[in-house]
Structure formats: C-alpha cells, structure tokens
Specification:
The structure holds 2 protein chains of 2 kinds. Chain A is mostly beta strands. Chain A is built from no helices and 11 strands. In chain A, the strands form 2 sheets. In chain A, strands 2, 4, 5, 6, 9, 10 and 11 form a 7-stranded mixed β-sheet that branches. In chain A, strand 4 and strand 5 form a beta hairpin. Chain A is globular and about 40 Å long. Chain A starts with a strand and ends with a strand. The relative contact order of chain A is 0.32. The radius of gyration of chain B is 13 Å and the shape is globular. In chain B, the strands form 2 sheets. In chain B, strands 2, 4, 5, 6, 9, 10 and 11 form a 7-stranded mixed β-sheet that branches. The chains are: A mainly beta, B mainly beta. At the A-B interface, strand 5 and strand 10 of A face strand 5 and strand 10 of B.
Chain lengths: 119, 112
C-alpha cells in the first residue's frame, strides 16, 4: 500500500526540541521531493519545508529558518524534521507530504502527527 | 509572501446543484513559462487534504470530471458542476509560483 506514516509528535515546552519522522512505503521514495506541511488547530494549511529527491536542496518558510531542519534517508525510505527552539505558534498537526513536482502537486499526504508547545 | 483570499468562506449547496469557489491572489501566479501555478485541495471531515487540481485546470488522477479549475493571473476558480454529498469539506487553493507555497484560508462546502 502506498502510504506515509508520521511519528514523533508530542507535548513539549517552549524552547524544547522534537524530531518528527515519516516512513514511506509502497513507492520509490528517492524519486520524489518531500515536504512538511502543518495545520494549526482549526485553521488552514501552512507549508513548512521541502527537500529534493537526493537531499541536495532544502527550502524553509521564514518562520522556521534556523530552527527546523528537514532531512531524509533514502536507504530507510524516511523523511525527518528536526525542530529546535519550539514556540507556542509551532503547535500544529504536521503532515508528511509527497509531491509530483518540486513544490506543487502534493499527491500523497500522511495522517499527521500532533506537536503541542505549551508550558 | 503571496496572500490568497478565497470566497465564500462557507458555501451551502443543494445536491445536484453547481458550486463555485473563488481564489484571488495578491500577486500574479503566472510563471514566465506560461503556466499559472495554482493547485486545489480538499480536506474532508477528519481526513488529511487530498489533491484535486494542479496548474490551474488539470485534474489529479481519479478526480471526477465534475471538478474543473480555471483562471489566470490573480483570479482563479474551482467549479463543481453537480455537487454530491461526498464533496463536503474544506477546499483550499495553493500557489506555487513563489516560495514559500501559500494556501488560501479555505472554503467550507456543506450540503443543504
């Protein structure tokens, strides 16, 4: 089955860190750009970061630059998001997303993993 | 960042009737290659978003032909020719002409 399964979310205090993981299955992972897109409670969608098929290019939304790092391990069919210096406004459901093109045609979404930043 | 404004915010529709959602951009979404970089997604209740339309008017695989997209520059539209009960959800436009991708605030389509 073609799917993406996120893990690693949880409750963390402001300033803390979390590492999200996304396990891909059912497709050739190293042929796709991958992204993280988040959704704060009751609100819309916010693109966070993406990474090229071979990991050579990475892009971030300004609000997470210098705090979040996207990476991938094609041998393990896995995508990661290291989140440091977490802020209250980072509280969201984080989706792992496959794209058919670099930054559009988001054709496969995971179910998401919840990150809650609270003191 | 490019701001996308969708209207209406809420759209009650009778099954079998058409529906139309507008997406207006703060900047042109027309790339120098001639493509307008607009996608549409739908998030059904309790589910992750699903891919509907790319490059303004191209349906994703498996999307029924009652869904269509149009527009150019700063004004874009998603149309459903005959709404079905399964179409309930929040519809989002997204631009990809400039990084970061940005999404509209969403339009909640409900069945009357």
């Amino acid at each position: 089955e073609v799917e993406l399964v996120e893990s690693g979310g949880g409750l963390v205090q402001p300033g803390g860190s979390l590492r999200l993981s996304c396990a891909a299955s059912g497709f050739t992972f190293n042929r796709y750009w991958m992204s993280w897109i988040r959704q704060a409670p009751g609100t819309g969608l916010e693109w966070v970061a993406n990474i090229k098929e071979d990991g050579s290019e990475k892009y971030y939304v300004d609000s997470v630059k210098g705090r979040f790092t996207i990476s991938r391990d094609n041998a393990k069919n896995s995508l990661y998001l290291q989140m440091n210096g977490l802020r209250l406004e980072d509280t969201s459901l984080y989706y792992c997303v496959r794209s058919q093109a670099a930054d559009y045609k988001y054709d496969l979404w995971g179910r998401g993993t919840q990150v809650t930043v609270s003191s | 960042d490019i701001v996308l404004t969708q209207s209406p915010v809420s759209l009650p529709v009778t099954p079998g009737e058409p529906a139309s959602i507008s997406c207006r951009s703060s900047q042109s979404l027309l790339h120098s290659n001639g493509n307008n970089y607009v996608d549409w997604y739908v998030q059904k209740p309790g589910k992750s978003p699903q891919f509907l339309i790319y490059l303004t008017s191209n349906r994703a695989p498996g999307v029924p032909d009652r869904f269509s997209g149009s527009g150019s520059g700063t004004d874009f539209t998603l149309k459903i020719s005959r709404v079905e009960a399964e179409d309930v959800g929040v519809y989002y436009c997204m631009q990809a002409v400039q990084t970061p991708n940005t999404f509209g605030q969403g339009t909640w389509l409900e069945i009357k």
